[in-house]
Structures are given as structure tokens and as C-alpha cells.
Amino acid sequence: MRYEAPRTLKAALALLSGANGHARILAGGTDLLIGMRAGHVIPELLVDVKGIPEMTSIVAKNGGFRLGAAVSCMELIEHKAFAKAWPGVIDGIKLIGSIQVKGRATLGGNLCNASPAADSVPAMIAAEALVSIAGPNGKREARVEDIAIGPGKTSLAKGEIITSFLLPRRLPHSGGAYLRFTPRTEMDIAVVGAGVNLTLDKSGRCLQARVSLGAVADRALLVPEAAAALIGSRVDAAALENLAAAASAACRPIDDKRGTKEFRIKVAGVMARRAAEIALARARGKN
Amino acid sequence: MAKQHVAATINGDAVEFLCETHQTLLDVLRDELGLTGTKEGCGTGDCGACSVTIDGRLVCSCLVLGVEAKGKSIQTIEGMAAGAELHPLQRKFLEHAGLQCGICTPGILIAARSLLERNPDPTEEEIRLWLAGNLCRCTGYNKIVDAVLDAAREMRRK
Amino acid sequence: MPDTITPGEKKLRVVGTRPVRPDGVPKVTGLARFGADYSLPGMLWGKILRSPHAHARIRSIDTSQALALPGVKAVMTAADLPEQKFEYVGPERTAANFWHMTRGIMAREKVLFEGHAVAAVAAISKMVADEALRLIKVDYEVLPHVIDVEQAMQPDAPLLFEDMITRGVEPAPDKPSNISKRIEFKIGDIEAGFAAADKIVENTYRTKPVHQGYIEPQACLARFDADGQAELWASSQGHFVIRALTSRLVGMEVGNLRVYPAEIGGGFGGKNVPYVEPVALVLSRKSGHPVKIVLSRDEVFRACGPAAGSVMTVKIGITKDGKIVAADGVFTFQAGAFPTSPVMNACMCGFTPYDIANVRSVGYDVVSNRPKTAAYRAPGSPISAYAVESTMDMAAASIGMDPLQFRLKNVAKPGTQTVWGPKHTHEGFAETIRALMQNPAYSTPLGKNQGRGVAVGYWFNNGGESSANVHVNEDGTVLVATGSSDLSGTRASMALMAAETLGIDYDKVRAIVADTGSIGFCGISAGSRTTFATGIAVVQACRKVIDELRARAAMIWDAKVEDVVWEDGCAKRAGKGPGEVETLPIKAIAAKRTVTGGPISAEVSVNAGGVAPGFAAEFCDVEVDPETGAVKVLRFVAAQDVGRAIHPALVEGQIQGGVAQGIGWALNEEYIYDDAGRLANPGFLDYRIPVASDLPKIEAVLVEVPNPNHPFGAKGVGEANIVPSLAAVSNAVSRAIGRRMTELPMSPPKVLRALDPQRGS
Fold first, then answer.
1. Domains in chain B with CATH codes
2. What is the pTM of this model?
3. Please, which residues 270-309 of chain C have a Cβ atom closer than 8 Å to chain B?
4. ipTM exceeding 0.95, yes/no
């Protein structure tokens, strides 16, 4: 197995296309090394992208943020301005593994590993984040919710890398949150994950909302029906009930060693509702 | 495939080693460099016994490749004491009996030091959340928390 | 011969203090060497090939390609281990059968669980060893498997042993089954007892198998020399027992094997027996090089002995004033691939905290396709206590009696008959219950969705064989060597007891763990026996040294030894004037040792009796999230009769650690198998032990009712604390939700299902 650490995106792309599908990107390595140890992944070439400037920087621009796909979770958590603007995304990032894992893990890896239970993904989807992709045919952008297409599978073409995430400028009276259910307080894979983002108008009515669920289908879901339960409402108890019901209805979960179908369906509604309550408090300016 | 040559700094000393591409930093520390203070409890980043810092960042060395250490500054448990003078955390762990079998202790000390560098006055809850990635099966974490709180207190006074 | 020291009679100088342990600095600096930390020049790496099937016949194993791989220096199969006689040896409760044991080390006719070792290689690197394993060809005939204990007892269940006829049944069954044994204990007349009861409560409980969860995987380094002598560095709970078992399994004389105790990173009973040692020795013998084997976490879960899963039924009869008049329990334990699970312990311990005239305990030991159970902290007792204490909780609730009052009313005392024969002889149970009742936290008011669970528990503890060596060094400092593996600080306890006995400072005593070549036999550090039995050996050796020191002083003074006393680390005799005392401190006597007879030392070996049992009473407060079934432990108070805490911080640590394990067992830990009988969660991600943020501060209450048979009154402390903890958590959850929980672990989906009003209780 070869290891290369290119210093430019161009060099990285050249290495990937040269390897003809047998290369893997090494960012945080917190999923890749486990797969390699278990013999599930046997790359011929590792392309370490942590030396590429645009993939490892955090840039505030026009009120929005461009986050390098290989920035570590801890760096994102420690970035005061980003954490202040997007506490809901930080909620998700904070739940990835342990402090040690977060010291290496990245948003790019969390998304491209394509576990249906990834914690940053529903939070990013709810935030309406976009990804920038570079590849042999040039650059393009895509929505976060369009990247994972099934467990371990992405829509990226051969030789493509996600280089950064773009979070838009925040509208006033906006708030977001991500909650997940796990049997222990930390260290578990989400049994259910729920990300909610909402924007209120001056009178406190919900103008916009996005709701995303993780670990209840083969990939993170954007649930427009759940958002619809909030839009136009004052996000009162009735609207939250409808949100919860819509979230439960949208689940297509499996039984696995981490949870049963029945449990996931039930708890998805609960988590979505509780995340919406926190998002609402943040939108109203109360933390 | 020939081994990779890596130059890094470990506990303040310049170090060079050879390793296979697939070898983790944990493998390198233990098997190539004889630094067996860092332990393998699981090999998959779930237990924290292999905790080290890389350029000041707390990580699991079982999830880092040896080749990724190139040019980095790594701190392991062997470098925690200043010569014969124990770090306050090490002393407090001994005073409070914050260890029983001791296998998780190096990882927990490295993790706790990293916490106190960022947050010199943590609450009990903050300590527990920070150390959630360090499994201990012997102590129930009680005396570990006591030791970290007491060490933090002493370090704040200095 | 042990003395009695009752509290208040004589003030202790060092016993009862909290000094730093002698192995502390190496452990906080990373210098302490555990099993995987040893290396030798020319060392090879050993790796084990394991069965991918839960149950299969082995038709053939072809290791030729592996052996031919460059860098591979030896391969082995079970053919390289001698066959063992089929017989159960030793006392019934801890009987071993080497015919089973050798097959546990490496499979012969069949593989009996996924992960069962079938072959091993030694090679110049881990990478080459892994490649060599891939080249070993095993021809399996896959057989149907069975894992769950109830399924394994079904008449049409796949049989692990086609000739297994249940022992303990008269007349013996005419058909084989997976039930290896039935046992029964009884006193009184349970039919009459239940007939006289005003209320009868009964329930059936199920627990899943759990693992001890030690953070250090098994590891060893072996060197087998051409002259048949071998050395082994291994972390274990007893290097003498490892030597005994390993030498027999490998087919060598005990005296040709020397075992050095590495520091051990957790055992809890799981490291009382060998796994890798015989394999490393044979590979070393065949290759002519030292061989190191370190198991991965995956291997630890798949192949190293866990605690049994169970199904149990308990029935209790009480009068309306809360006197227990009859108790009946049937305990069925899953032994794993080979007999014997600790179901006998479970039967013996379950009702033993109580004074009940009519009791019956029946146990079934059942084999199934998973690794053979190993001991786990008071093996068997926490499991039967879960069933018994849950039912006791139901009984107390049925008459509206406070659960601790109910325990106090029925508690066993000296003279109470146990179900297996002897009468209780030690005090302490009632005192422990009272200490818990008086704990201020017990009256903390509870809020919504909160519940409080109470439980008590019993464990035999243990005595047995220990050896200790005490030397006075030339400068008056003292070496205390024992053969007891130190799991959590017993070296400090040995040093404290020696310093107290000799009357010298703690830091003048160095306690070490000596290897099998340096000291007499010492039993395993398990069964809560170390501070008790090895402590007795240490104190007796110190007393012999004191006699020797007095004799030397008498020589130096030209006095009669009867006129010399030993006090405060000095020989003393009456001086010339009235009230005058002449003294010779230990340092001065040591300086003159050569002219007075040579080195000053003593070795004592004991088979310690006079064991006092362990007893704990605990309560747990939880809050249940009614929308998700998540359980949060709000507080936990554990009172335990420790006799006398030699080192209180270490004793508190034992209690806190045992309780933490019990909380994990009750809430989230379990083995999960797929349909093919393969373990789906062989790692710490999905085998969920408590993390720091899962637990509150666990309060340990040390009750001291001294054991008169130990020089300082110590009772074993390591195990009794886990016994009530499963039931304490379960009773708390049950009271919080108003439904009786009867299955462990109480993972959130189970709690949520129990809360579902359509399902009832």
C-alpha cells in the first residue's frame, strides 16, 4: 500500500485518477483505519489530503462559512464564530465519537463514509449546506442530502473529492439543533438522529424550516412533511405534535443490533420534536 | 514494498523510525520505539487507552498511521513527568487512588492534561464528558474525577 | 495463629490510612509492564486461527502452505497438545475437567463456538503471521448451532456432545442433551412453608451473557528452551495456577515452567485461566524462539470466557407481617461450549442473606455454542441475586413494607442455617443493612419518573493457599514478597499489614509480587481472598521475623529472650533504673545480623481458613425518560461489611468499581448474535460498558464488623459489592415505571415496551 501526501488539490486529483478506483482518501482516518484493520477495505494507495490548504481552512465569507472538508471536528467546535452562527451543526459534530475521535474526524469523512447514522449529516442537511466537489471533469456543487445514496455508497463519480462545505448566511430569527438517541450518554452510534433548522418572522411565526432524520433509513432523510408541520405555525404544541408524527411516518428503519424498527419509529418523533424545541429557543434568542 | 522513513518529535526529542504504511502510530510507538506506556485496549478508537497528543491535539494513536506522524510533535505518557518531577495529575491520581489496575491510566492522564490545558476549571460534568472516550472498568470513574478536580485546583493556584 | 484486634482496643498506626501504593509511580508514568509490554531478542509474533462457524466438525486441517511461507517459523494444531483424561477434578463448586480445558485452548474433533481456536502460527512479524493464518486450510462440516439457554434445553436442540447425559438426575436420563448437570439444595419443607404463607409472589427472569470487560486483552511472552525448561511472562490473576494449568495442558512438569507475573490490566475472574499461554509455549518449543501473543479486542469477545446468560424462576412466601416462610428458586445457566457455569454458586448464594426455614434451590448447567464461561466477580451470585432480590422487592411491595426493613426483618445472623448445610458464623449483615438505612441519601425525596431500588447480596469470599516471604534488609528496611498477583493495589495492603505488625513506617516496607521460581505456592487473586489469606501469611511471617529480631537483640544485650519485647519497631527491655527502657531499633539489629546469626527472614505458607463472607446492601435511584425508555442513574449508595479496611481508598474503589459493572450489566451490556451464531458486537462500540458520563458519584459506605480470624479483622471486599447491584437498578426502574422488569439488560427499547399501556406488566 502506497501513501502520498499531496500539497495541492491538483496533485491529489491526479493521484486519484491514476489509481483507477483503488485509492482511498485519508482525511481523519477514523473510519478508514477501522475498515482497513477489519480487512473490509484494502486500498492500494492512500491519498492524505490534510496538507491541501482549501481542504483544511475555515473561511467566513459574506456571513456564510466555507469549511474545508478535512478540517477536524475539534477545530470546528473551537471556531468561535462558526459555533455561534451554527450551534445546531455543532450539536451534531460534538456527538461524533470521543474527544480523541473528534481530534481527527472530519465532515468530509463523516459524509462520505455514508453511514446512515452519521451525526453531522442530518444537522448539515437541516442547515441546507452545500458541498463543493472537485474531480477530473472540473468543479461542481451539490446538496449534502444528495451525496449519500445508501450505506457506504455516495453519488460521487470516480476520482471526485469533496473539498469544502458551504453554509449560507443566516437569516435573522433562525435557530437549529441536532439531537440523537443513544443508549449511553456518549460513544454510541445514533439509534435515531434528528436535525431541525427553522426561521421565524418578526411576529414569531415560522417562515422556513428543514427537518432531517438520521439512522432511520439507508441514508439521512430530508423530511419536507415534517418541516411543513412547522411552516406557517407558531411552533406550538400542536405543530410540534404534527412534526413528531410526520417524522415517525417518514422512517424506513431496520432492525439491527442498535435498535428495532418499532423503537426507531417511536423515538424519531420524540427526537425531532425535542430538537425543534431547542431550535425554536435558539431562534427566539434564548440559549 | 519498502518501509517508510519517518522523522518526528516524540516527547520533545527528535526521533526517526521505519514503518510499513499500514502500521498505526500505536504500533510504531509500542513495537518499533519500545514506548509501551501507550496501551492497546481495542484498536478501533472506542476505549482511549492509546491516547496521545499530536501537535497538542488529543487523539487515539490506533486511528493514526505511523506515516502521518511525519514532522509532527507527539506527546506520550512517557513524557508527562518533567524528569523526576511528576505532573500534578500524576501525583493526584496516586493520592486519590484514581487507578486500580492502571491499564487505562496513561490514556486518561493524557486526556485529562489535554482538558486542563483548555479548561483549567472544569466542572465534574465537563470532566466526565471529556473523558467519555476513555473507558475504565475498575474504578467506576469516581476517584478519577476527584483526582482531576484536585489537580485542576492545584494547577490554578500556581 | 491469628489474633483478634477489636476496634478501640489498640490504635492502629498505619492500617486504615491511604498511602500511595508501591506500584503507583510506574503505573502513572507508563513504565509498569503489562502482559503485552515484554519483548525478547529474536522474538516471534504468534497469532491464532479461529473458527468462523458456531458449530462444526473438523474434517481436516492443512497447515503446509502456512509453514512454507517465508518468515513463518512454526505452526501448531491441537495435535501438538497432549490429550487429557475426561474427569472432573477438585471440589464440586470449582471442578475442572482437563478434557474440556484442552479443547477450549484448541479445538479437536469439533469447533463449538465462533472464534474457537483451531490452529496457530509463529512468524517474524504480525503481518506475516496474519498472512500465514489465511493459508491454513480447514475443512469444516458445518452443523446446526444453538446459543440461547432455553433453546439449548429443547429436546430437538443440536447437541454439542452426543454423549452428554445430565449428571445429578436419578435415574439418569436415557437420552443425551445439552444439560450437563442438575443440582439441588434444600432445607425444611417448602410445600408446608408455602401452605403457611399469607402471600406468595413468583416471577421468571432472564439475563443475557455479559463480559468482564477488562481493558487489557490477554497477552503473554513465552520462551521454551531446548532443554525443556520454559519461562513465561503473562498477566493473569495467579501465575502459580497459570503455571499448573499450562504445564499440564502442554505436557510438561510444573518445575520446568517458570512464570513471571506481568502487571495485569483487569481480570475480574476472566484471567484465572490460560488462553494464550499454552499456545505461545508450544509455538516457542517448535520454533526455538520466544513467541509473543497479544489478543485483539475482537478475539477477547469472541473467544474468552464471559459470564452466563440465564433463565430463572423464584417464588417467595411471606406472612402478612413480612416474615419469609418459604423460598424456591430454579436457576438455569448457560455454561458455554463446555461445562461448568457457576450455577452452583448461584444456588448457594441466592437466599443466603436470609433466615428462611424452608428453602429449595435447583440449578441447571447447560452447554451451548459460545465460549465457555469464566468467573466474573462473585460468579453466579449477581445473577441469582437479580432474580431473588427482584422477587423480594415484589414481596415487600405487596405488603407495603419498606424494602430495607423487610430485609432487616429477615436477615441471617450467626446460627442461621444456610441452604447448603453449614450455619452462618459471622456477624455483619444486619449492621450493613442498618448503615444503609441510616445513610442520609436514603431519605432523598424522589421526583416524577424516578424510582428507588434496594437489594442485598452475599458472597462466600475465600481463603486458601498463600505464601509470603519477609526479609529485613541490611539497613533495616523490609522486603515483603508474596505470590499474589496484584490487580488493584494489594501490594499496598501487604505493606500496610507488615508495617503495622513490625511497628515500622509504611515507606520502610517494599512489597513485591514474586514469580513462581522465587516463592512458595500462592492461589489466584480472586474470590476476594488476597488481603485475607495472603495477609495472614504476611502477618505470620512478620511475627516470625519479630521473634528472630528479639532473639538477635537478646544476643546483642546478652539477655534472655523472654525479657525482650517488640514494640514500635524496636526491641525493648527494662533498663537499670526504675522506668528506664533500653531500645534497639530494627536498623541497629539489622546492622549486626552477620555476627548474630546471618540474614533475618521468614517464609510462611498457609491454607487460610476462618473466612468471613462478603455482604452488601445497596440502593439505586433512577430517572426514566418515559418517551424513550432511557434510564439515568441519579445516585447509588453501596454499603458493604469490609471487616476492617486496610487501605480505605482501595476498598472504596473496589465497591465503586463493582457497582459500575453491575450498572452496565443491568442497563446495556449483552452479547448479540446473528442467525449464524456469530457475535455481532465484538467491540467496545456495541458492547456498551458505562462511560464516565453515564455514572453519578457512587457512594461507598464501609461497615466494619471485624473478622476475628484475620489479624486486623479484614474480610474480603472485591466481590460482594456487585452482587446486589443488578437488582438494585432493576428494582429502581421497576418502581419508577410501575411495572416489574424481568429481563436484563434493561435497554431503552425494553423499558419503552414495558411502559406501553397496551402491554400491561
1. 4-79 (3.10.20.30), 88-157 (1.10.150.120)
2. 0.97
3. 294, 296-297
4. yes
